[in-house]
């Protein structure tokens, strides 16, 4: 299966079911009371991290995900069933971004971790809810709200304990094969490792282990997206320990300087990671040259371990050093999880504007109209759009309790003026409560 670490999808949560407008009917009961039940909640879209999946490839071919709508409410106070949630199984290490805002909406770093990325709509209330001392038979019910829709980008940031950092043909694949049970394809050409390869490294006694990732070789300009650079850097950002694999036969000092420059350009915090240097291919040079290079690399402040992936020289020492240097998993996870900002609940500010309309029939003065926008009032009206005339009295009272009448009065509204909120029109009145 091909490796895929970036995938764009669209998610559509289920709509909430409408509330029921119903009245109880029985053989010997001519006029029963309202008994409309509530609508069910719409299903949500949920990301779930699972084991045994190392690529987003399994989702290719399906780019749109829709959750089930909530069922409508029914008479006899029967509530509609909730819509079934839709789960999208992804590899551990998957981060989800809202493609429109760019913000992180999910970061799954543990098996079984779940995150709602599109929330289902709320069910509408049945007419039984709106009974009051002055409203014994409400002939309106509430509509359900739409589910959230989102365009989402999934990025797999491979979670490995140790990441091998190096230029193409530095010997990373050979080193991984020598230290672990992985069997990467090894050949002598640039970008030998086209997909991240994981191996498991065990301690000498076999009681401890960690995962090691051989990730595509880096090139100059990787932080700008050249070559496989961004793919490399995205995956290396999740490793607890970095191993710079350098070829002693080239210019290891300059290569290490360039590698760190690319990491710094992508994310300066990567240089704060625990790291060491594996000086590879020492079987090809004299011991004096190896010692001289070690001294030159000492200026970077990192442990330097000369090794030969081909002959096995220095591998036991490297293995022991990696177990000694590896940070605690839980402590590392607490400090490196991506921060998810809480969703902002944006409600447009209330705006009230005055305009003159055409004179009403039989009158010479123009109609005085107040247009109301924002404040959440149109949203509330839309939830009663099927029964807007029957719900007019309820909505008028609701808006008064929520301070709209006071705001209209402050703006200069007079008794008998027309108020428009979307498609809803009603007459403003200044009752005793408002005067007081």
Automatic annotation (TrEMBL):
Binding site residues for GTP: 166-173, 191-195, 214-217, 280-283, 308-310
Amino acids binding Mg(2+): 173, 193
Keywords, comma-separated and alphabetical: Cytoplasm, GTP-binding, Hydrolase, Magnesium, Metal-binding, Nucleotide-binding
Any single GO BP term: ribosome biogenesis
Domain of life: Bacteria
Entry-linked InterPro entries: G_OBG, GTP-bd, GTP-bd_Obg/CgtA, GTP-bd_prot_GTP1/OBG_C_sf, GTP1-OBG_CS, GTP1_OBG_dom, GTP1_OBG_dom_sf, OBG_GTPase
Domain OCT: 342-430
Domain spans labelled OBG-type G: 160-327
Cofactor annotation: Mg(2+)
GO molecular function terms attached to this record: GTP binding; GTPase activity; magnesium ion binding
Pfam family, one: DUF1967
One GO CC annotation: cytoplasm
Occurrences of domain Obg (ranges): 1-159
Family: Belongs to the TRAFAC class OBG-HflX-like GTPase superfamily. OBG GTPase family.
PANTHER family: DEVELOPMENTALLY REGULATED GTP-BINDING PROTEIN-RELATED (PTHR11702), MITOCHONDRIAL RIBOSOME-ASSOCIATED GTPASE 2 (PTHR11702:SF31)
Function: An essential GTPase which binds GTP, GDP and possibly (p)ppGpp with moderate affinity, with high nucleotide exchange rates and a fairly low GTP hydrolysis rate. Plays a role in control of the cell cycle, stress response, ribosome biogenesis and in those bacteria that undergo differentiation, in morphogenesis control.
Assembly information from the UniProt record: Monomer.
Name listed for the protein in its UniProt record: GTPase Obg
Species in which this protein is naturally found: Deinococcus phoenicis
